[in-house]
Amino acid sequence: MTAIAPAPTASAGSGSDVQIPSSPVLELRDLRKSFGETKIIRGVNLAVKRGERHALIGPNGAGKSTLFNLISGHYVPTSGEVVLNGKQIGGLQPHVINRLGLSRSFQITNLFPRLSVAENLRISVMGQHGYRFSMFRPVAGLTAVTAEVDQFLEKIRLTRRRDDNVGDLAYSEQRALEIGMSLATNPEILLLDEPTAGMSLEETAYMVELIRTVTEGKTLLVVEHDMSVVFGLCDQISVLVYGEVIATGEPAAVRNNPKVQEAYLGEEVAT
Amino acid sequence: MEYLVVSTLNGVVHGLLLFMVSAGLTLIFGMMGVLNFSHAWFYMLGAYIGFTCTRTIGFWPGIILAPLLVGALGVFVERYMLRRVHKYGHAHELLLTFGLAFIIEEVIKLFYGDFPVSYQMPSYMRFAAFTIFDTNYPFYRLFIGGVAGLIFVGLYLLLTRTRIGIIVRAATFRPTTVEALGHNLPVIFMGVFAAGAALAGLAGAVAGAFFPTSPNMATDFGTLVFVVTVVGGLGSVEGALIASLMIGLFISFSVGLNWALADLFGIVGLGPWAQAFGGILTLKLSTIANSMPFLLMLFILLVRPAGLMGDRQ
Amino acid sequence: MTRLRYLLILIALGVFAILPVFLSGNLLNAIIKMMISALFALAFTLAMGQAGMLSFGHAAYYGLGAFAAVHAMRFVEAGAFSFPTPLIPLAGAAVGFLFGLLFGWFATQRSGVYFSMVTLALAELLYTLAPTWNSLFGGESGISTIRGASWGISFGDDAHVYYLTLFWVTLATWCLWAFTRTPLGRLALALRDNEHRVRFLGFNTHMARTLIFALSCLFTGVAGALLAIATEAANYTAFSSKASADVVLQTFIGGAGTFFGPALGAASMTFFARVTSDLTRSWLLYQGLLFVLVMLFVPDGIGGLIAEHSKKVKKGGYKALVLPYLLCLVTGLLLLAGVVFLVESTHILLSDGYIAKTKSSGGAAVPFSFFGQDFNPRSWVTWSIPIGLLLAGAALMPAAMKVTGRAWLHATQSAPAQGETA
């Protein structure tokens, strides 16, 4: 049904530097999810290789968001496996999955509205530095954290809004921060849920360019409706229809795949 | 056997009474996301209105006036207070009703004093409905149970069989959709809030004539109502019913039992040691009957954090 | 600005340090209670204002802290072990923290209103359990003890207790303030804003919330222990929902969004309760009314109001605000006078003494005296006073609000121009 790489043997403990570049970071094996009687995800197999920029497309209601929620730990799979770097993570708590190297952004802006931009990023960064429940030293003294926050601010081009409240940011700036925060947990794979949803044409173009630069060298899995974003950003595409992946491959191949064309027939395909 | 029957009856009556108050609370919460902290204080207000009426115009007018007046208060609270602070979020709404509860209690103390008042049922209702073994079972307890039962049946029919009921139930799940379908959501909210308040007022007027009517009744009853909603799962009327009955029975059974943890140790031969240890081990179940609902709640939180009928967060 | 703040804090501490020289025992006691309730409110705000956990049962930890202190003092009294009196609050802290962890673990399973109800029920559990458990809580009468002398201080004098309280409240306040600057303190703010997102950033939020709640309980326990030291007793009513309600009301009147607002609210409410206790029995009613008014019209509390002013009013802007605020004050006073008249006269008319008087006079109208004036309860003149006051206040209100709103705009306009370059 789909062209997937054979499952690698578990290689837990091996550092990322010895990983073969093409080994999958994330793999879904016959993943299923039902809500009551309704089967939403019906046996998804998918592999995202290291360094790949993988897009997940599909018509409305195909189960893309559910799939993201299964991978990131928001939902518990009914059956099947989610494998991150050879480790089964399906059903684990979101914070555990995050620490294992998978981070996600949200479709609806999901920030800390009453904190400043820098503080939002700092929450992300300080967890990475092991300051999770630390209460005996002031944050002002954590110079490494502050330096990294500033670095990320530079990357997502929000340095001049450093001390502004997130609630006062423009929408596209909030979206940029959203991605910056997910990125700041230093994940091995980043899941982006419709990063350009609700944006104007110019904003979308800006965002695609921004995502491309900030995620340089990272593995990406992106849900997106806008085909121009998909083709501008990704080198692999999987098509999800009714809870199943019907095709995976390079953009050109997927575009000409008869199954995909059939699935999208009558649907509005943004070009 | 006698103990079993009487305790069951008492438990069911108490449970139904709890349900009468918690149903309104849980419906309001389900629809508006507002936890009306003052709900049990509406119940107390009903009892005091009933008391005032018995003194002046009689018992039955009180039974009718209490829900009407408390319902009207509900309209005022929803329309002129809650709606005003809605923009600040649910915690703010909760706090506002919390303050309201405080004011109701203090106003009642101002007018009726700090001590219980003698709110009595009419003398012709003061008789034993039946005698079971050696116990005369008071008719009025059955009356309370009957009223609560009627309310339950009425509520059930209203919610499942009528157009209004369907709209209300739909609004519990998807308020915005209901609004988009052209229903006047603010009016529905106000109606449900008023109806819930009226139910609490009625329950107070009916039950206050049997149970003590005092400025503390709201705190005591209110915490039980909150336990019911946590155990049953907020927003679920079925959950409220099950939890109410469960807690009613739980209390009525533990009141009569003299078990203590020490007895448990007795089984394995550690009885004397436990007796000597004293403290929590020799506390009798009957003396801590009032604490039982809270222990039950902790247990439920351990095994089913969302409550019996609640959705997973 | 920060310099000024430090200077102000130093001056305040200096004033507090020399107060016992001027004040008598009774007033000193009042200040001790104010400091304790201020600390209680600050500890409560750690859970509420910073982490968004609205606890309706914080009296549980307050009471536990008090009982821990009393038991520690009794052990010392009985000679079981020696422990210096000034360190007794540590017992309250330890017990508060432990129970905070235990109860917090349950309560933080849920968030939002569920959390509030679970905390309420947990406190009620203690409240119902305590009077039946004689050995630990002393039944309905509670436990009393005596402060032991240690470090060469007798602790028999009010001033000794005052300095002990001052020291601990200052230390705890500093700790609470410093906490807001730590990673966990910042995380608390993030949890308040959006717990869901925090989980996806790699934090175990249940653990974080439990820990923050327990820290709040730790300082609440210190406050409770200080109360027990001051009163040399603890009683199961410390667990009552009234005690829990008080801290909620006081904190939000003060403003939970600012650091010192809750302390301000708690201290002033405690002060007013004390001052008015001889004049009225309805203080709690007034406090409740004040709370609801604050919730309706000043959602950020008094502290929030002050912060807003210091942040937004531009230089010289206060000039424009003086007259409108005077108008508001007059309006408020008119309404207040009307309400007070109604409440207090109701109180008098329904009192046993007054009812006995009417009976003995054979049903004739008995004048009641109030503020040194005699009023006839059956005369319309009497009741036209409060109604007139209320009507006048209500008539002035729209005008006062309009004028103030306009003056506020005037006083703050063009103030936040900096940084707005978009």
Number of helices of chain A: 9
How much helix, percentage-wise, in residues of chain B?
A: over 70%
Percent strand of chain A: 15-25%
Number of domains of chain A: 2
The average pLDDT value of chain A, as a whole number, equals 80
Number of strands of chain A: 10
Oligomeric nature of the chains = heterotrimer
Report strand % of chain B: under 5%
What Rg of chain B do the Cα atoms give? 21 Å
- Helical content of chain A (DSSP H or I, runs of 4+): 25-40%
Q: Kindly report how far apart the N and C termini of chain A lie.
A: 26 Å
Question: Architecture of the largest domain in chain A, according to CATH?
Answer: 3-Layer(aba) Sandwich
Features:
heterotrimer; A: 271 residues; alpha/beta; Rossmann fold; 2 domains; six-stranded mixed β-sheet; four-stranded antiparallel β-sheet; 32% helix; globular; C: 422 residues; mainly alpha; ABC transporter involved in vitamin B12 uptake, BtuC; two-stranded antiparallel ribbon
Can you characterise this structure?
The complex is a heterotrimer of chains A (271), B (313) and C (422). Chain A is of the alpha/beta class. Helix content of chain A is 32%, strand content 23%. In chain A, 44% of the residues are buried. With 313 residues, chain B is mainly alpha-helical. Chain B has one domain (2-258). Chain B is built from 13 helices and 2 strands. In chain B, strands 1-2 form a two-stranded antiparallel sheet. In chain B, α1 packs across α9 (217-232), α2 (39-56) packs parallel to α4 and α2 (39-56) packs across α8. Chain C is mainly alpha-helical. Helix content of chain C is 72%, strand content 2%. The chains are: A alpha/beta (271), B mainly alpha (313), C mainly alpha (422). At the B-C interface, α3, α4, α9 and α13 of B face α5, α10, α12 and α14 of C.
Concise overview:
The complex is a heterotrimer of chains A (271), B (313) and C (422). Chain A has 271 residues and is an alpha/beta fold.
Q: Could you give the topology of this structure?
A:
The complex is a heterotrimer of chains A (271), B (313) and C (422).
Chain A: E1 24-35, E2 38-49, E3 53-57, H1 64-72, E4 79-84, E5 87-88, H2 94-99, E6 102-104, H3 117-128, H4 143-155, H5 171-184, E7 189-193, H6 201-214, E8 219-223, H7 227-233, E9 236-241, E10 244-249, H8 251-256, H9 258-264
Chain B: H1 2-32, H2 39-56, H3 59-85, H4 90-112, E1 128-132, E2 135-138, H5 139-161, H6 163-173, H7 175-180, H8 185-208, H9 217-232, H10 237-255, H11 261-267, H12 271-277, H13 292-303
Antiparallel strand pairs in B: 1-2
Helix pairs in contact in B: 1-5, 1-6, 1-8, 1-9, 1-10, 2-3, 2-4, 2-8, 2-9, 3-8, 5-6, 5-8, 9-10, 9-13, 11-12
Chain C: H1 2-22, H2 25-50, H3 59-78, H4 89-107, H5 113-129, H6 134-137, E1 143-144, H7 158-179, H8 183-199, H9 205-231, E2 233-234, H10 241-254, H11 261-276, H12 283-297, H13 301-312, H14 318-349, H15 352-360, E3 368-370, E4 373-375, H16 380-412
Antiparallel strand pairs in C: 1-2, 3-4
